[in-house]
Design a protein that fits this description.
This protein has two helices and 16 strands. The strands form four sheets. It has a six-stranded antiparallel beta barrel. The protein has a six-stranded antiparallel beta barrel with strand order 7-8-11-14-13-12. The longest helix has 15 residues.
């Protein structure tokens, strides 16, 4: 531990963030706050589903400071993934590579954007667990929780490992707990959203219909 170079570690974290910064974007949400997005590939961006509304006009501010209108291609509430397609994205946007498997204690770097300015915080992976199902019926490939303290502007931004690999997208769970939507889940959702614009989910339910028989009222 005596050989640990804090300055070198600090520079390494900053360098990882700087290398990924050109892939970032931000936009104003319907809640009048700022959320982040990042380039997935082929000119498409992903962001947090909760940050967008169907039919609203979205303007992405790219890392260059350029503002472009973006179409909401689709959204999947069950995984928290939304897919955006800018009308004219800048050429040469980087595609973040998939991270290797992470373990509790690994360094995690959360990135965000605000009006073209890159944001970055680091912490650690707090929990890695098996696949789970969201409250809206989506299958999430891994449970990844982060020991990171961050603000709302990071929502929808990428979470990277120490080598700059993409672990997944930052979302907020119950009580604003920071969690990650894993790379594999995003990849699966994006493929369906590009093709269909939504992810179909089966459901069971019951409906009530009023009935009237003379003075008797009820439902069936």
């Amino acid at each position: 531990m005596s050989n640990f170079n804090l300055s070198a570690f600090s520079d390494a974290v900053a360098n990882v963030a700087a290398a990924a910064a050109p892939a970032l974007a931000s936009f104003a949400t319907h809640h009048h706050r700022t959320a982040s997005a990042f380039h997935w590939h082929d000119g498409f961006f992903v962001t947090a589903e909760e940050a967008v509304e169907a039919g609203e006009e979205i303007e992405l501010t790219l890392a260059s400071g350029e503002t472009v209108k973006a179409e909401l291609v689709g959204r999947d509430p069950s995984t928290g993934v939304a897919l955006l397609k800018p009308a004219s994205a800048a050429a040469g946007l980087p595609q973040l590579p998939q991270a290797a498997a992470v373990r509790p204690g690994h360094v995690a770097i959360a990135l965000g954007s605000s009006d073209g300015t890159a944001l970055a915080v680091f912490g650690s992976v707090g929990e890695v667990g098996p696949a789970w199902r969201s409250m809206r019926g989506g299958t999430i490939d891994r449970r990844i929780n982060l020991a990171i303290n961050t603000g709302g502007r990071f929502e929808g931004g990428p979470v990277l490992d120490a080598k700059g690999g993409l672990i997944g997208m930052l979302l907020f769970g119950p009580r604003r707990r920071v969690l990650v939507m894993p790379y594999e889940t995003i990849e699966r959702a994006v493929a369906t959203l590009r093709e269909k614009g939504h992810v179909a989910r089966g459901y069971l339910g019951a409906g009530l219909h009023p009935i009237r028989n003379g003075d008797t009222h009820g439902a069936w």
